[in-house]
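Trying the structure run again after the queue cleared.
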Amino acid sequence: MDVLKVSSKSNPVSVAGAIAGIIREKQIVEVQGIGAGAVNQALKSIAVARVYVAPSGIDLVCSPAFSSVEVDGEIKTAMKLIVEVR
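Done. Tokens:
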């Protein structure tokens, strides 16, 4: 499964385009963010991606979960959002 890592500075429209492209090809993608700002940008991106793929008859669902990731030798908790076709 492809993983898109989102930061608080990520452009939601750009991330949405990436999500839509992966969804059209593979039907599933994981979007990860560490921190409230990053998770906010990730959720906005998923909302925009739903609009992008809706004309094709695709409806997206999102399942949130926690994930441990290593950043600069440190373990951090990330929010992972599994986005897939309903």
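The first helix runs from residue 12 to 26. Worth checking whether this holds up in the mutant runs.
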